[in-house]
Fold:
Amino acid sequence: MKQAIELIINGETHDLFVASNVTLVEAIRDNVGLLGTKVGCDMGTCGACTVLLEGKPILSCITLAVECNGKEITTIEGVSDGVTLSNLQEAFVRKGGVQCGFCTPGMILSGTALLKKNSKPKVDEVAKALEGNLCRCTGYNRIIDAVLDASVSTSHLQDQGEK
Amino acid sequence: MGELKLVGKSLLRIDGPDKTTGKAKYTADRKLPGMLVGGILRSPHPHAKILNINTEKAEKLLGVKAIISGSDTRGVKHGFVETPRYPPDQNILADDVVRHVGEEIVAVAATNYKVLNDALNLIEVTYEVLPAVFDVAEAMHPDCKVQIHPNHPKVKDDFCNIAGKTETQWGDIEEGFKQADLICVDRFESHLRTHGYLEPQTAIADYGGDGTLHMWISSMGHFVKRKKLASTLGMPEGSIQIHKAYVGGAFGGKIDLFSHEYCAAALSIKTGRPVKFVATREEIFTAYRHGQPLISEIKTGVKKDGTIVAQQLRMINNAGAYKGSGVVVIFLAWGFVMLPYRVKNFKYEGYSIFTNNPPRAPLRGHGAPQVRFALESHMDIIAEKLKMDPIALRLKNARIPGEELPNGDNVHNCGLQACIQKAVSKTDFSKRRHCFPNTEKISAHRPIKHGIGLGVSSYFGGSLIYPNSSSAIVKMNDDGSVDLLTGAIELGQGSETVLCQIVGEELQLELEDIRIISSDTATTPQDIGAWISGMTYVTGNAVREAAGGVREKILQVAAEQLNERVENLKLENKSVLVAADPAQRISYRDVFNASIANSRGDTIIGKGHWRTMRDEPFHPSLATTKGRWSENYAFSVQVAEVAVDTETGEIKLLKATTVHDCGFPINPQLVKGQIDGQVSLALGHAFMEDVMMKNGYTLNPTWLDYRMPLIHNVADSKEVDVITESYQVGRSFRTKEVGEGLVSAILAAIANAIYDATGLRMYTTPFSPEKVLKGLKLLDENKGLR
Structure:
């Protein structure tokens, strides 16, 4: 059965008419057309599809769209305006937390949610917040660095390089 | 040598902003009007005859647009290797026999996934189930009743199910063993692991009305993909365009032609509509390729002073139901054995054996981790028996610069000796080894033992495999910025950044002034792809040549305009100026216009191409190893520091130190990223990951059950460079491999560190808590007996 729902994605309201078994990530990608949210496993095991629901990170591949009716959702497209990166996005680039990029949107949303409630997280708090996000490329060291760095730094992309 | 501006600097990756903002487009992010979804019906049996396929009910379903089975294909086979000795052996869709669980039988295109899944369920296949064999020892046993394919016609051994064999020798092996003061025999076994790329296998095909088959594929090399699509589809290469998409990781698992890629194309041709295939994670775990389990049997003869005088090896690979890369890994295993150490008398046999498991693919390192785990453990065993320092044993036999390898290759400025020495000094290795079983009691009941271990590895950089060459084009724009056209594919390694750094260095441009157009088979030149460990070297030199062509033209035009000799000019800030009188200058914009006005309309385009070992006709023989393999070899030493919990059997890799000779890094931060990722992969190999199979079925086909490292499983990863080469504008350069060679020595180092901590020698991977506890218990019992 289809249902009319309203999703407030990145501050914009989207009126959708979706079957009750449509997942949130399907609604975001296929109905709304925001393609930054990735699907790595479609079974809630990899974290690539992480978005924020009312500010909390959730797995959009195992969340039904109809459950999110009337709620606020933040996807990777809503983390910054896409031109000026957020501190965390910028730190991911500067610290080498990005390789293939497929886990990156989910990582950044988990990290963004953490930094919002805990502006100075310790390493184990970062790990706890990002434990549901798999990354196969980086070995995680640089991702931890990026989150820690974003919590203290406001430096910009132009400030290139470490060596 | 002038100071370098871009090369050698940790410039930020140019795809970083797109990848952190969700703008980066991967294959599944391509939405086309009217796009159908595709799926594949796969064999539920590891070995069966197909008696009948009935698709009638599925065809009648509303929304099913096309169905194809084996008889609808041209019957052209494909394979990872396609040579006269090893002709292609895989069907796109099964003919009359399926040989592994998950083998592709029927493909369907439908309007949505609901219809697709209903259709796949309605297809009736009648099978006659055949006996199957899974274990490599059973499969190769001369009395094995199951014959999956006929034995390789050129291999005359008594064994069964031989997919391929590599054999080679030099010196006099028997004489060598006679000279030995000590002969040491060991056997090691590596288990089955998988790639774990985050982005699923995905392909989109759109055979529009323009006569071109447009495709987007999550791949590691579009040109080799296109070649195999062309041969199986019966289309000219030029009528297939594979477009650029970012790739969400591959690690070796996306090289082969996969059935779904062909089926997307065939179904799009049949329906006239775009068709998309996305493999489910369960499909990837059960039906796609995994890595290569390998058995290593080693016999080594050494003199009292540590000189290796003879070495004999037999490697056995469980290839799965088709040759896949199994017949390559037995060749590569030879290479990974012979690279680091000098062995005068040598004999090698590698067998690849068919079993009713899914076929295998390369997995980052392609045999090297398995081989180096075996060989470096073996080296430590020998050292102990000789009562010799394991470092001294390695230094005694390690290659030195300029040494010629048994296959005629040269190690050139090999940094191995320096790597060993630096690794030892940086980690204070000799002092800390054996001091370690210093037990640290975390609580009264949980003693943790610490240990340190070391491993050595080497990896080739680029080899001659289709298309054997990379070309590149650099063209100037009116404003003096340039476009780089390259077939190189970005899958996380940072190829686009590195190649732009080279262009920037040659033309003294900032990265912002370089636009890269990459991995599109219609608009970019041929490229070797990101799967033969030679991208920076081969494609990098092609790009350097292309940019160099532009530089020469700029200088020539500027020389005419400034009435000055080329030697007296230099490039700076998008201008050419007279070195001695910088006020005399001409901007690239004016150079561009002057070139069009005065050089018969030349818009300043540079072309470059590079082929490694340009005088060699082919890749070396997979059967005999004869022929040259590579012209640059990277060397590495890795040190592992571990903590073994003797109560739970759990081991932690506390610190990994990677000392490596990559020639020189074009982008140190990207090199470091490669190292960290490989240490993490090795950590998974050592402690966590295990594809558990029973009767050809994968028992743990999800990431909940196949445990890959999480953010909680992080090792401190430190890096030390050994620089042996350099970059000079206008000259060819020799970078060495960093993308997959550094998963290996660390695995061996971990095994040696476990021994250092506990006295427990690991002969098989993974080093699981169960195995460790069992081993420790056995050690205790044996001590009691003594």
In short: Chain A touches chain B through 57 residues (CB under 8 Å). Residues 154-163 of chain A have pLDDT under 50 and may be disordered. The radius of gyration of chain A is 16 Å.
